[in-house]
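Closing statement on the adenosine-5'-triphosphate sub-project.
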Amino acid sequence: MDWGFIARYAPYYVLAAQVTLLISLSGIAVSVLVGILCSMVRHARIPVLRQVAAAYVELSRNTPLLVQLFFLYFGLPKLGIVWSPEACAIVGLGFLGGSYMAESFRSGLDSVASSQADAASVLGMTRVQSLRHVILPQALAVAVPGIVANVIFLVKESSVVSGIALADLMYLAKDLIGLYYDTTEALALLVVAYATILLPISLLGTLLERRLDHARR
Amino acid sequence: GSAADAVKGAAGDAASTEAGQSQARTLEQIKQSGTINIGVFTDKAPFGYVDGNGTYQGYDVVFANRLAQDLGVKASFVATDAANRVPYLESNKVDVILANFTVTDERAQKVDFAEPYMKVSLGVVSPTSKSITSVEALAGKTLIVTKGTTAETYFEKNHPDVTLQKYDQYADAYNALLDGRGDAFSTDNTEVLAWAKSNPGYTVGITSLGDADTIAPAVHKGNDTVRDYINQEINSLASESFFHADYAQTLEPVYGDDVNVDDIVVEGGKVS
Amino acid sequence: MSDATGEAPMLEVRGLTKRFGDEVVLDGLDLAVRKGEVVVVLGPSGCGKSTLLRCIAGLEGVDAGEVRLEGEPISGTRRDSALRQRLGMVFQSYDLFPTRTVLANVTLAPVVVQHRDRLEAEREAEALLRRVGLWDKRDSYPSTLSGGQRQRVAICRALAMHPDVMLLDEVTAALDPEMVHEVLDVVLELAEGGLTMVIVTHEMRFAAAIADRVVMLDGGEVVEESDDPAAFFERPETGRAREFLSMFEYKREKGKGTDHED
Amino acid sequence: MSDATGEAPMLEVRGLTKRFGDEVVLDGLDLAVRKGEVVVVLGPSGCGKSTLLRCIAGLEGVDAGEVRLEGEPISGTRRDSALRQRLGMVFQSYDLFPTRTVLANVTLAPVVVQHRDRLEAEREAEALLRRVGLWDKRDSYPSTLSGGQRQRVAICRALAMHPDVMLLDEVTAALDPEMVHEVLDVVLELAEGGLTMVIVTHEMRFAAAIADRVVMLDGGEVVEESDDPAAFFERPETGRAREFLSMFEYKREKGKGTDHED
Amino acid sequence: MPGAEIVLDPSNVLRLLAGLGVTVRIGLVSVALSLPLGIACGMLMTLRNPLIRAVLRAYLEFIRIMPQLVLLYLVFFGTAGAWGWDLSGEAASVVVFSLWGAAELGDLVRGALESIPRTQYDSAYVLGMGRRQAFARVILPQAVTRLLPPAVNLATRMVKTTSLCMLIGVVELIRVGQQIIDYNRFAVPTGALWIYGSIFFLYFIVCWPLSILSRRLERRWAR
Ligand SMILES: Nc1ncnc2c1ncn2[C@@H]1O[C@H](COP(=O)(O)OP(=O)(O)OP(=O)(O)O)[C@@H](O)[C@H]1O
Ligand SMILES: Nc1ncnc2c1ncn2[C@@H]1O[C@H](COP(=O)(O)OP(=O)(O)OP(=O)(O)O)[C@@H](O)[C@H]1O
Ligand SMILES: [Mg+2]
Ligand SMILES: [Mg+2]
């Protein structure tokens, strides 16, 4: 191990980690929005939109992010649509993550027994009150492990954006390998960087799960 | 830069001793196996690319085929990226790299180069409408490069004021230029000249940048039997002006009369 | 079907018909419950007892007939919140809100629905929880309680809304015998306090003890009704009631087992 | 503790002690069951009834004491297959094998464990399933059956091994009253057929009807034992038994509710 | 729309299909290898041995939080740099996807085994079945029905993720597509749109049936 190399390039990894975080967090935010929209459309059984949502989920789940990104980044410009790498990455992650998030939300909603809505109703709650005070807190508690898994998944998948010239962690590592051929060091830093980002998320998820355990009986 | 170079040098030593645990195949072993593994580009026409039938073509590939033929073995091509060339050799994934590999000091610490068979320096291609004609004009602009190329190294070292946008593959880089994602693209001048010829609307505003470099085959560090054989081959091919013929077959259709063949081709390893 | 005195009964069901698809579950059913009366509804599984309570509570729409509360018609599921508050209901499944503590379960609806002051709601919840012996569990989550404890909290939660009528649907079906007793003691106490209740249960001894009136459903109709529960359980009049009650009797030709010995 | 005639009882438990951690669940318990006898074990929740049956079946190891089958000691969990086959057990939860049909559930162990001929095993399964009225369900999967049907199949599955003793642990606790009857009728029939059984149940009427002997556990010991179940249920001798049986009684000061009317 | 000819040219179609073949081959070989590894892993995880548990837990957690692309680089370049291993891109991909599949499948197997109620073991025991009989006849069939839907789902994800192999130089579907785009850059300027669109579609038609299968199995066995 070449510690000089590591000392010299570790700060670059910090910068690249910021890019990774920024891109994945934005992508996750979009995913959550898409996921809520999608699960609402499917939960409420809105006609046409429901089929559109179902088709979207299939497309999103059965194609790789890399191909989705290449299509957005290199394919769309041929139609005159040129998006920045950041835009492509966030749209791509949102497109991919949306269906995963929708799935988690849906299973959360489904897991709430219908008797809970009945109980709220006989207590005189309105639909909105029942959703806000009774259904959503429970649905969320059940959905949390899935959501955390999706967050980890999306941060991991964000490594693919290096392919469209976004200077994330993976991009930096590939670059250093190509420039200086210090493969071992570049990869060691890469592993440490991802572990530093994802281990806390993973641990936080476990903690959260335990805290919400009483909500799942 | 010098401290960094020292660091890199030390790292190079460490890496080569570590990599030494794996033995490169000798010439004899290659002959016995009946195939030689050669790393080539697949997306860098007219030097190394795959044609409409899926066959490897180009200036480097013609030489590679001849090398294999004279050795009496089959050429097995391995697709490589610019950035993968050194790791491929270090891990013996290929016996030889024939992928427009510019000879540099950093690389020479990691791999052994044979005699050169081409000359290059860097060129910069940009849209004719917003042609970039000097390095100074690049300041603050976005320059597309491919990871692991001499262009990347050159601009990283000498022009930190230029924003680099890096791609894994040449194909991606060219597409990015076509889609207007950067102001210009830099790589070997031979490459950009060839490309600009066939892409109307693009001009090579800077035809020669940095030091004039050579391009040579490379082998695993210390794999002398193979390197010596290649050198011997390059020398003997000079008698039949092999690389001129190669040029006529693969590059001339692209360059036409604009380029003087002797500005590019090196015969017998002798840089004129 | 109103009272002899002409005053409207607290709760009245008239010609209630309810279908699920082609299946007629309730078929023109009539039932009136006076203020302070405890009516126990009996009947075989699937005869529509739960459906009846759910129609009364407004959880299911009705296909024909109507439900009246103090003479005012309230059929249909789209009744407003004020009306729904007048009917309290407790279900078989412990349907407490799992993400809230015991105290929060009891105070949620008073605060959110009735806009009562939190402190006042908590004071009342304290009184209710003390009555069922669960005040020291106020900060526990439902998942940490036994089934009997959960049902007692569910009863408090319904009572906190001051309902005019309580509907109890097999509130002890999922409980161990001891817990059954815990819960039914609370219900007996409510009956003694004069609360109007409609109770579905399979605990025959409990039914006999608590009922002012017993109503037996079968085939979507009332097949037997009695103001004298003791008599109903001793000498049911219809064949169906006898058959139903025999479900709780067992007979064995004794002696065979011991014949084998030696 | 053996029989007056000197012959060893079918099943005998001597000084059985079982601890979970620091908790002593069974404390030197003695019990003998004669051939063909039906013993009902009663007691409050958590008193160790299930633990007793599980120790007898070899599902739990014991800390002291022993279990004997026809005089032969069989304590411990590592007993061999032949011995295990002599004790059949049915659990509260429907524990059928969900990936196999009803028929396959009943024939699996005879074929796999006893290496009996498949056709012969199926012929016997047919007889058993007809007896419990489920022969036409032979090709159904457990998930499509009602709880009562599942328990009847579970009983057939145990019977197909020709056990000497059947252990039934609250086999009706998760069932609706009608289904309870379906299942208990089958058990009554087995008792009449002379099968030796140890039964844990909370159905007091059933217990009174089926028991040759009633054993009440509390605090890890037998607190009351009676060869005359009728007398036990009418006039329990110990305070504990009286207290336990009172769990099934309810009393209400009647009339209060009706006072309110008008 | 101009440019469609690039994906109608028979030789291009054949090349793309050959690329898809490589993709599917890597996916299938990895799935096949991760099956025994994953089952072994899952069974080991149900053991009470704390050492085995800790080791497997660490393995699982590492695989769980590392991007597959990082793992590919680790195995492809890392092992070459550190130990001079000569793994081809395809071999490295298979190694990575098998290790990843084994970890994820192991967790599924563990979950399936642990989800089987205790009374199932008890019933088998009181019926006189031996440990092996009980496992083979009672536990395994139930575990498999619970396991299969998520396992098929995992296989879909594995096939999908083989797209990353292209970044370590494996000439698979995407790389072939890039070669075609590059070669036809002048003749068909809109090639990228068509080719990436086709690749998108090809992945979809390979993965979609697997997704459907997984859902069918799930519905069938939802008991
Ligand atoms: N939501 C529903 N959709 C379709 N059918 C239903 C629905 N709810 C109840 N039923 C049917 O209506 C009939 C009566 O059901 P209900 O639950 O009211 O019976 P019950 O008397 O409460 O029985 P149990 O004693 O088992 O609780 C049953 O045949 C049932 O299958
Ligand atoms: N596997 C176990 N580990 C620890 N404690 C146990 C275990 N099984 C039972 N116990 C404890 O042993 C005691 C007796 O349990 P057991 O299930 O035998 O009671 P039971 O009489 O069958 O009660 P119930 O009527 O509720 O079924 C209980 O306090 C229980 O908590
Ligand atoms: Mg009901
Ligand atoms: Mg028990």
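Residues 163 and 174 of chain E are 7 Å apart (CA to CA). With this model delivered, the sub-project is considered complete and its resources will be redirected to Aim 3.
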